[in-house]
Amino acid sequence: MATEQSHSAFTAKDFQSQQINDWCAGCGDHGILRGLERALAALGRSPDEVAVFGGIGCSGKTPYYLNSYGVHTLHGRLLPFATGAKLANPDLTVIAVGGDGDGLSIGAGHFVNVGRRNLDLTYILFNNGVYGLTKGQASPTLRQGEQTRSMPQSNIQGHINPIMLALSAGFTWVGRGYAYDVKSLSQLIQQAIEHPGIAYLDVLQPCPVYNDLHDKAWYGERIYSLRAEGHDPVISDSSDEQGSQEKRVQCLLKAQEWDEQIPVGVFLQDLTQPLFLEQITRRQPSYARMPPARIAVADAAGRPLSDLSQLFTELEVS
Amino acid sequence: MHVILKNYQNGRHSQPIVKTRTEHIAWRIGGPQGSGIDRIATLFARACALSGQQVSCRREYHSNIIGRHSYCDVSASPGPITCHSESPDMLVTFESESLCRHLNALTTPGYVICSADDGEVDLASLSYLDARLQHDIIEQLTTLGLPATSSGLLEMARQHGVHTFAIPYKALLSRLADELGVARQRVAAAINIMAVAISSSMLGISRGSLERALEKVFPGQQDVLEMNRRALAIACQYAQDSFEPLELQLPEPRGDTAGLLLNASQSVALGKLAAGLGFQSYYPISPASDESVFLEAHNRVPLTNGEESGPLLLQVEDELAAVTMACGAALTGTRSATATSGPGFSLMTEGLGWAGMNEVPLVITLYQRGGPSTGMATRTEQGDLQSAIHGGHGEFPRMVLASGDVEECFYDAAQAFDYAERYQLPVIHLLDKALTSTLQTVPTFEMSRLQIDRGELYRPGHEPASAVPRFALTDSGISPRPLLGQAGGQHWLTGVEHSEYGQVSEDPVMREQMMEKRARKLLQAAQEIPTDEKLRLYGDIDAAFTIISWGSNKGALLDALKRLAHEGISARAVQLRLLWPFPGEELEAILATAGPLVMVECNYSGQMNALVKAQMGRGCDHLVVKYNGRPISGEALYQVLQQIHEGKAEARMVLRNPYE
Description:
heterodimer, A: alpha/beta, Rossmann fold, two-stranded antiparallel ribbon, 12 helices, about 35% helix, globular, disordered N terminus, B: alpha/beta, Pyruvate-ferredoxin Oxidoreductase, domain 3, 4 domains, 8-stranded mixed beta sheet, 7-stranded mixed beta sheet
């Protein structure tokens, strides 16, 4: 199970960058960053094997604070950027981090569609109910009727349940963590990274400046562990249709708990779905040996290596 | 050149008619979409090519799957044929809508190969015919005292000197069905092949060429091939027995036509494969998707070292994803691209800006179509020039290349990756619908002409791994490029203004340095790129009469120059190829001796003229534009250039044709 391993050549500190961190004191983001550093160290990855893609907003700054390949992308577009890098160089460990506005509003189309490709990619969503960097507007996870500190009126739009959305989009690993419980969170991040397919990790991340409704005390009273409750999230037998269906229903039921109690942990892990890279290799055998980043384009003299003579014959006049 | 044509009517000789024309034939087939028009035109084009002709085939179609009108023009000539003809010599069709749309466009004398089986069709019942055209045609017929029916139309055509040949297809198909011992419905599709066979026979195309073309265009099951062969034989025999050969004949070949027969989207795809494309993400859009689909079908590429590679093609959720996914792949050192059309490019501009800011080598192939908004999805326009050059917020370097014909597309598509990697910026390869749907004979592409340049890559040195200056300030503006996943090449990238190390920086001095560094790359490009890649001159290079254009108008321009030369009018044409950075220095010398200066564009406002004016301080004397969604032809351009030459033209000339 996910614990820091003593034989790892890297420590959490190796993943800390020297860039100045400008997140607010007490922000849940710090906990997620610590969780990421620990998980990466525990996995024994070298910083130059890891690429972290951030969206826009406070959470999007995470790549700056990690010592790895760090790419600060566009609002809502971190998933396609990350997907492109992973598809081109599958040896990379690719992690995408972004906020709830980023992933569920402006980037919702990508959230849903990345679920359709069971690519070995980890998506961590910093879920705090507000747009912090633009001074606290409602995000798509804020409930109808709620009004946080800087909102002039209460929220008249409904909310998106990201766990249910992830499940229906096809994510094969769906979990939720809590930013103030770094130990459990780092274990969840590690599991998400180790999952061979597409993983969605929702992280409850209090924003102490703008979200005065969902603070440490509010979460503290409600959070409980799925694992401690004996929840078994794993679907491993593709022939057991009924069992698989029960697991999904169980996931949906758990995903709807909120007001009284909030589950954290792994909601679902489906190991029966075909992996995207294997599907690519099946239709394009060279991909396994020569993924896009490894394609030799030209020889030392700049002569192209592609041999198109067969194609030219196909298109010849005679 | 003057070609004397003899006039025959239904095989009966009559008086010869003299006609001024270049040495080529123009053949058109029209019919509802989904009825095989496109393939049948390809069959005819290939048969011409196999008869030693060079061909250029233009395709017009509606944004519709089945039923609406489409047509194809095939122009064939033993010499270079660079563009389509707006006035075909021969029209092949099976239905009345095509007659309405095209009879008035035919040359005199022209030839119509139609069906003898259709009963009388009331033209008012043609629901897909544009109301404007329907009204005009009916009015024309009424004026002549003819009924508003299909036979009225054919009679009007005959009165205008057009020869009509009604073919008893039903009887021919019955004969075919009997020979094969199958029901007539089973051979219904062979009507297309029969039509090509009959018109080809009449034009003197050999049955051998037709048979070879058939095998290439309709490969596959033996029984289908056999049916098609027999259909060909029956139709050729019928034509031989029924008609004398027309005086209009396929010109004598000057030898075999070697080379390839392909369209621009295939040519671009081949160029990308030649350049080692590794990744292309795309979202379906007309007319750009053809290229991606072709690549997806040809994604296994043998290498000269015996191995196999090939690009990963991925259809994604939208153009926002297409451009950013290609960016993500490019960061790993993969030659990456996307292909789109106007509406998709609008969505891509945020990703384009990110690529500019992060100095990502990215190729965007932009197939322009009629805009704005959804505009005319399947019609052509050069309306996205300003958008390609300026699209997106803020200022960042990019390059914009425009190919002029199918052959250039191959070399430019490959070249685009070299520019992208050498100067570390997005390159927009600007094409249009006219080019992508133009099928042309071209000389076989020479791989040996390609010299691949991957630009300056970062080599890990002694500095700590976490300190790679991705955006190092250099004299050229080009920083050695580390790749995602490169051992010891760890770095940060960001769309936020940044330091050399990719750290956020709002320092005013750093900001200036970064803006200047990025801008220097374009100056470097402008200095290094050879003139021939920037612009090309055609015609009499010392002539004062100067015509400037860009993109797919090249074909019409060359055709018009040829016609002007026949008339003894000396003119030169400038084809602008590198549109950004703008080749101002190279153009300056030309403009100094130009008069009158003419700009030719497929848009309303004259976007290139505005650009030339802004860059050179001088606009054109005459702006020739066309914006009805159809490409400019050599004959139409020639006419307007002649008027300009005679001093009879206004400053703004609009090319129009109600029968396209």
